[in-house]
Amino acid sequence: MASNMIIRKAILSEVETLADIGYVAWERDLMPFLNGTAAIKQNERKRLSTAVHDLLDRIIVAEIDGVAVGWCARQRGKAYIPYLFVTPLLQNHGIGTAILRRMESMLELQGADRVQLDTLADNVRAVNFYQHQGYQILVLKSEGQPGQTAMSIRLEKKLQPFRGAISDVED
């Protein structure tokens, strides 16, 4: 992992940068497994931009030397991670692990006892990554419209939620 990496909240001025990171990773790692409308590049670029904008207050960003290199989002109201992307050239350097662990810690502080996420079943690299992080497969499911379906996997990890109050007052 890069020693000069920081993890911080996302900011409005970087919505398109984060969408670009997601798009480049999607194009390399996910698009080869998709067909039909799910594989249309313009649709995915627009979808990612909208998702980043909608979830901005729930996104954390990995930054190296002032440059965003990855991001992770959590869904409102539940312990679910819909997005985790790392710039493809920097994958396999611990960045994804670091932002995933930070997101899990944030969820634990909110009292979550488990977290779930989905990934394409054919994306063996992602499935292996999540299993290496302690996630277990819950279910295999079909997504998409008839004739344009893709199989996805729902994974879950048990967390150790924080119980009690957090105080800044010294005893």
Fold topology:
Blueprint: E1 5-9, H1 15-29, H2 41-54, E2 59-64, E3 67-73, E4 80-81, E5 83-86, H3 95-109, E6 114-120, H4 124-132, E7 136-143, E8 150-158
Helix pairs in contact: 1-2
Structure characterization notes:
The chain has a single domain (about 5-160), classed as 3-Layer(aba) Sandwich (Aminopeptidase). A 4-stranded antiparallel sheet has the order 1-2-3-5, sandwiched between helices. It is α+β, with helices and mostly antiparallel strands. The longest helix has 15 residues, at about 15-30. The termini are far apart. It has helices at about 15-30, 40-55, 95-110, 125-130, and strands at about 5-10, 60-65, 65-75, 80, 85, 115-120, 135-145, 150-160.
At the fold tier of CATH, the topology name is Aminopeptidase
Count of folded domains: 1
Form type: globular
* Rounded mean pLDDT score: 86
CATH class term: Alpha Beta
Q: What gap, in angstroms, lies between the N and C termini? A: 36 Å
- Rg result: 17 Å
Low-confidence residue ranges: none
Entry keywords:
single chain; 171 residues; alpha+beta; Aminopeptidase; four-stranded antiparallel sheet; four-stranded mixed sheet; 4 helices; 8 strands; 31% helix; globular
